[in-house]
Specification:
binds pyridoxal-5'-phosphate, globular, 4-stranded mixed sheet, 2 domains, alpha/beta, single chain, 41% helix, Aspartate Aminotransferase, domain 2, 406 residues, Aspartate Aminotransferase, domain 1
Length: 406
């Protein structure tokens, strides 16, 4: 290759200022924490092919199989034919399409709230909301295991961040009690915790927030399409309607497409239109995304069997893992951790399972505590009993080989 004046492009003319990145990667390799990306060949199905290997896929958030559902595909294709592939602008300039408004109206009805605003992802919904609703004089009271997007949003807000131990409602109350009068306060929890699969104490935290006049927020990413009537979330599951000021959901997991949303009062949503930076400064979804999400809501409302199948597969898989003698923690959702201790052991177990046709992602520090490395398994509604039984058999073989179970 040569440049404009025939001068060869070369990288050896100066020391690489990014060389420290390579050093950090080497350190990850030494700790057994380096990961290469597994490549999905074909569709994200319950039984899928990654890296030329056919596997029972226990690592997808496509809980209900909607990512490949014929009605979602048809809706997306029709929207492309009718409206094209991109929206062309941010929502606040020329990028608000009728489909975006229709999706938001449908979500508001689904969540029984006044209004909803859709973001490009659940990540931007959390980060954009927390960082705009709170400011530097305020206090955020946050569960220790809350999602990274909440943590980033809290940091961007410049508010004081007080972390309470996981699910410890008394500790949250103590923090609120110790705050002198003045600052605004936000209590925030995940509805379903993404690494442990346990549920946030939503109702108890609502009571604490009410006692101290705090704003209450729930991130329902893994609960969207899974908990509550028709998959409408943990606020419905715990019957806390009207007590949670800000609900975040995702369209990227059980809904099968892409996006995040905030559900709440009309005032909250109008405020986010004016202040949430990802909404203001990043282009809106392509019409196909909005159309597919609307089709997913139709399915949640008319085909309850998908959620029923997800839960019956969840019960089967969890029961099988426990009977084999694995430590599955305190999960109450389809997310089931298989806790094995050291990160290197979790990665070895994940690799061996993969070689035997089961994809269960290994997860280590810093995503989870150092001695809590795990495989994280999630069934889908579309797994057959044979798929799940095969996976359990392989967990038994590999778990015994590695001495994780007796
Ligand atoms: C996945 C997840 C998000 C982010 O959602 P995306 O739509 O994937 O960006 C936010 N919060 C929690 C708890 C999650 O698990």
């Amino acid at each position: 290759m040569t440049g404009r004046r025939g001068v060869p492009y070369t990288r050896d003319m100066r020391p690489d200022p990014l060389s420290y990145l390579g050093d950090e990667l080497s350190a990850l390799k030494a700790q057994g924490l380096y990961r290469s990306l597994r490549v999905l060949e074909g569709e994200p199905l319950a039984h899928a092919t990654f890296d030329h290997q056919s596997v029972v896929n226990l690592s997808s958030n496509n809980y209900l199989g909607l990512a490949t559902h014929p009605r979602l595909r048809a809706a997306a294709i029709a929207a492309i034919e009718r409206y094209g592939v991109g929206s062309g602008a941010v929502r606040t300039i020329a990028g608000t399409m009728e489909l975006h408004m229709e999706l938001e109206r449908r979500l508001a009805a689904f969540k029984h709230v006044e209004a909803v605003v859709v973001f490009q992802s659940g990540f931007t919904a959390n980060a954009g909301t927390v960082s705009s609703v709170l400011g530097k004089d305020d206090v955020i009271i946050s569960d220790a295991l809350n999602h990274a997007s909440i943590i980033d949003g809290a940091r961007l807000s410049r508010a004081t961040i007080k972390v309470f131990p996981h699910k410890d409602v008394d500790a949250a109350r103590q923090i609120l009690r110790d705050i002198p009068p003045g600052p605004r306060k936000l209590v925030i929890t995940d509805g379903v915790f993404s690494m442990d699969g346990d549920l946030g104490p939503v109702s108890e935290l609502c009571a604490v927030a009410e006692e101290y006049g705090a704003i209450m927020m729930v991130d329902d990413a893994h609960a969207s399409g899974v908990f509550g009537r028709n998959g409408s979330g943990t606020v419905d599951h715990f019957q806390c309607h009207g007590r949670v000021d800000i609900q975040v959901g995702t369209l990227s997991k059980a809904i099968g497409v892409l996006g995040g949303y905030v559900a709440g009062s009309r005032t909250l949503i109008d405020f986010l239109y004016h202040r949430a930076r990802p909404f203001l400064f990043s282009t809106s979804h392509p019409p196909a995304v909005a159309a597919a999400c609307i089709a997913a809501l139709d399915i949640l409302e008319t085909e309850p069997e998908w959620i029923e199948r997800l839960w019956s597969n969840t019960q089967f898989l969890k029961e099988g893992l426990r009977q084999l003698g694995f430590n599955t923690g305190h999960s109450e959702s389809p997310i089931t951790p298989v806790i094995v201790g050291e990160a290197s052991r979790a990665m070895a177990m994940s690799d061996r399972l993969f070689a035997r046709g089961v994809f269960a992602q290994g997860i280590g520090f810093p995503t989870v505590a150092r001695d809590q490395a795990r495989l994280r398994v999630m069934p889908m509604a579309t797994h057959t009993r044979e798929d799940l039984q095969y996976a359990l058999d392989m967990f038994g073989v590999v778990g015994r080989d590695l001495g994780v179970i007796g």
